[in-house]
Specification:
By secondary structure, the chain is α/β, with parallel strands linked by helices. The strands form 4 sheets. Strands 9-10-11-12-13-14-15-16 form an 8-stranded parallel β-barrel, surrounded by 7 helices. A 4-stranded parallel β-sheet has the order 3-6-7-8, with helices on both faces. The longest helix is centred in the middle third of the chain and has 24 residues. It is elongated and about 85 Å long. The structure holds 6-hydroxyuridine-5'-phosphate. The site of 6-hydroxyuridine-5'-phosphate has 17 residues, from strand 16 and helix 14.
C-alpha cells in the first residue's frame, strides 16, 4: 500500500466515514461495519488524491477513449474532479428523469463523439444502483466499459456486475483500522514502559551547548514542528534539487551521499545551498570521514566535491582516532557548520561495541565542533543531538543488511532527537505524502515522549 492509499484510509477513519457496531444495510442485511464516504468530499485534497488513484487504476487497465460519469450522487464529485484534472470529457446522469425540455436522463451527450463511458461510484454494497443505471446508457447507445468504485464492500462478488474495479476493499480498511489501533496501542504501551524521566523539549535545550548548529537545529525543529531528516540517496543531483524544492519546507535536514552522484555540478550544489536557506533546512554530507589527517583535509576541502563549501554537517568514524575531528575543529566555520560522530549503526553485523560507543562519546565531549551523534538512541546528555537512521513504519529490512525501527520506537523509547528516513520516502509512490506522514509520526511521537 503506498502513502496515498494510506492517506485516504486515514482520512476515511478520521472523517468518521467508517464506524464499527451493528448496522442494517440498504439491502436489509446486517453488518458490523458502517461505511458512508460522504464526508470525504469536504476535502479537496482527498478528492484530488482519489482522482490520482483512479487515474493509476485506469492506466493499469489500459482503458482509453471514454467519457467519465459519476453515479448520482456520490460518484459525481470524483468524476468531475477527474474530468478537470485529467482533461477528460464527462456526462451527467440524473437520478430522476427531467420533467421538461428533452426529458433527458443523461446530460452532455449532444454532439459527443465518444461511444464508451466509464462510471465512478463511491461505495459498492450489492451493485444494485450500478445495475439500475446501465439501462440509461444502453438507451443512449453508450457502452459502459467498467466502473471504478472507491470502496468495494461486497461480501461476495455475485458476478452480476461486470468490470467493477475498486481502489479499496473492505478488508483493506479493516486491516488499516487494526494497524492504526495497534499503533496507538503500541504508543501507549511504549509510554507506559518508559521508565526514565520525560525528555526536555527541544526549546528547553537551547543554550546547553555553545555549538551554534546545535542551537540552530533545536530552534528550527520547534519552528517547523518537524524532527525529520530525509536521506536523498539518489544518484542524480538534479533529482535531489527537484525533490527538495517540494519537501524542503517540511524537513530540518537533508542527508546526502555526494560520492554516489552521477551528474555532479558545483553550480547545482550552490542552488541547493540557496534552496536550503530559502526553505530552511540543513545539508548533511554523510561522508563518514575516517582517514589520516592530511587525506581528510583534502577530502573535505578539495577534490571535485569541495564538501566544505556546501555541507553544514559532516560526520566521522573514529576508528582511526580523533585526528580528523581535531583538524575539523580548526577548519570548520562555527557559524553554520558542525560535526557528527558515528557512535552506533543500524545495520546487521556492524562491529560497534558498547565500549567503542563510550569512547566516541568521550571524544565528542572534547571538541566544540561536535553537535551530536549518529546513534540508535540517546547515548549521552542533553547537550548533544542524536540522529537515528534506519527508520521505517514497517520493520522489514531491505533484503541486505539494513534494519528498521519505527519513529515511535526511536523517539519515545530510545529518546533520539531526529529521525533519518531514506527509501521509505524516496521509493514511495508519493514523496510528498510520505514526507508528511513521517513528519507527523515523528512530531507526534516527540510530543508523546514529552509527557510526564
Ligand atoms: P534507508 O532509510 O533508505 O535505509 O537509508 C538509510 C541512510 O542512512 C543511508 O544513506 C545510509 O548510508 C545511512 N545510514 C544508515 O542506514 N545506518 C547507519 O547506521 C548510518 C547511516 O549513515
Amino acid at each position: 500500500m503506498d502513502s496515498r492509499q494510506h492517506y485516504i484510509l486515514q482520512r476515511i477513519i478520521e472523517l468518521n466515514c467508517f464506524k464499527e457496531g451493528k448496522f442494517t444495510l440498504k439491502n436489509g442485511s446486517e453488518s458490523n461495519y458502517y461505511i458512508n464516504l460522504r464526508n470525504l468530499i469536504r476535502e479537496p485534497e482527498v478528492i484530488k488524491v482519489i482522482c490520482e488513484l483512479i487515474y493509476d487504476k485506469i492506466n493499469f487497465l489500459s482503458w482509453k477513449d471514454f467519457v467519465i460519469c459519476g453515479l448520482p450522487y456520490a460518484g459525481i464529485p470524483y468524476a468531475q474532479g477527474y474530468s478537470i484534472i485529467y482533461n477528460t470529457p464527462s456526462v451527467f446522469l440524473r437520478k430522476e428523469q427531467k420533467k421538461h425540455g428533452m426529458n433527458n436522463m443523461i446530460d452532455g451527450l449532444e454532439g459527443l463523439d465518444k461511444k464508451k463511458v466509464l462510471l465512478i461510484d463511491d461505495v459498492i454494497t450489492s451493485g444494485s444502483s450500478n445495475q439500475e443505471s446501465l439501462v440509461h446508457f444502453e438507451k443512449e447507445k453508450l457502452e459502459v466499459i467498467g466502473t471504478i468504485v472507491i470502496m468495494d464492500r461486497r461480501i461476495e462478488n455475485t458476478g452480476l456486475i461486470e468490470n467493477v474495479n475498486s481502489l479499496f476493499k473492505l478488508e483493506d480498511l479493516l486491516q488499516y483500522n487494526s494497524y492504526r489501533k495497534a499503533n496507538l496501542l503500541q504508543e501507549t504501551q511504549l509510554l507506559s514502559s518508559k521508565t526514565e524521566e520525560s525528555r526536555k523539549s527541544y526549546g528547553e535545550r537551547v543554550g546547553l551547548s555553545n555549538n551554534k548548529m546545535f542551537n540552530f537545529l533545536l530552534n528550527l525543529m520547534e519552528e517547523k514542528k518537524s524532527n525529520l531528516a530525509v536521506s536523498l540517496d539518489y544518484t542524480s543531483l538534479k533529482q535531489i534539487y527537484k525533490v527538495l524544492s517540494v519537501i524542503g519546507e517540511h524537513i530540518v535536514i537533508v542527508k546526502l551521499h555526494m560520492d554516489i552522484i552521477e551528474d555532479f555540478d558545483m553550480d547545482l550544489c550552490s542552488q541547493i545551498v540557496k534552496l536550503s536557506k530559502d526553505l530552511k533546512f540543513v545539508i548533511f554530507e554523510d561522508r563518514k570521514f575516517s582517514e589520516i589527517g592530511s587525506i581528510f583535509q583534502k577530502q573535505y576541502q578539495g577534490g571535485m566535491y569541495r564538501i566544505s563549501e556546501w555541507a553544514n554537517l559532516v560526520n566521522f568514524h573514529l576508528i582511526s582516532g580523533d585526528s580528523n575531528i581535531q583538524l575539523f575543529d580548526k577548519i570548520y566555520n562555527p557559524e553554520d557548520q558542525a560535526g557528527l560522530l558515528v557512535a552506533q549503526m543500524s545495520n546487521k553485523g556492524n562491529l560497534f561495541s558498547k565500549d567503542y560507543t563510550n569512547q566516541v562519546i568521550e571524544i565528542g565531549k572534547r571538541y566544540p565542533s561536535v553537535c551530536g551523534f549518529i546513534s540508535q538512541k540517546k547515548i549521552a546528555g542533553n547537550e548533544f543531538l542524536y540522529l537515528t537512521p534506519g527508520i521505517g513504519i514497517s520493520k522489514e529490512g531491505d533484503n541486505l543488511d539494513q534494519q528498521y525501527k519505527s519513529p515511535q520506537q526511536a523517539l519515545i523509547i530510545d529518546g533520539t532527537d531526529i529521525i533519518i528516513v531514506g527509501r521509505n520516502i524516496t521509493q514511495s509512490k508519493s514523496i510528498i505524502k510520505s514526507t508528511l506522514l513521517y513528519k507527523e509520526l515523528g512530531w507526534n511521537s516527540y510530543l508523546l515522549s514529552l509527557r510526564k
